[in-house]
Write a structure and sequence with these properties.
Number of strands: 6
CATH class: Alpha Beta
Strand content: 25-35%
Strand order of the largest sheet: 4-5-3-6
Structural class: alpha+beta
Number of domains: 1
CATH architecture: 2-Layer Sandwich
Order of helices and strands: HHHEEEHEEHE
Radius of gyration: 19 Å
Helix content: 40-55%
């Protein structure tokens, strides 16, 4: 092979690895929302009542599709009030519910950056 071709291929791979947004840094929303998210993503106060768990007006849900205490504890190291939940397709860790998809994607990206298989699903 031509050494210029090899140099070009190596430079392209390094450029992608070093300057790709997904590789270089977590999304900007993580640093803004992280203090709010770690406090509580699954509970809020409504009048004198604290509502805990799945909330109807928060249809965008971040889930980790695995039902084990090990994964739950790992998610809880980032989201204190994560909990195990069940769906007809199987168990999962409910990491947080949001009214805006962007907020859910932000939390999903945070968990993914720590090696968890987090996904955003829409529960209508």
């Amino acid at each position: 092979m031509n050494r210029y071709l090899i140099t070009g291929m190596v430079a392209t791979v390094l450029w992608e690895a070093l300057f790709c947004k997904g590789w270089a840094q977590p999304p900007n929303c993580i640093t803004k929302n992280l203090p709010e998210v770690t406090k509580s993503a699954n509970s809020f106060q409504q009048s004198n009542v604290i509502v805990i768990g799945k909330v109807p007006d928060r249809p965008y849900v971040v889930v980790v599709p695995e039902k084990s205490d090990k994964v739950l504890n790992l998610v809880r190291s980032y989201i204190a009030d994560a909990f195990l939940a069940q769906h007809r397709l199987g168990g999962y860790v409910y990491a947080g519910g949001f009214s805006q998809r962007e907020s859910a994607e932000c939390l999903s990206n945070l968990l993914r950056s720590h090696g968890l298989d987090a996904r955003v699903v829409y529960f209508h």
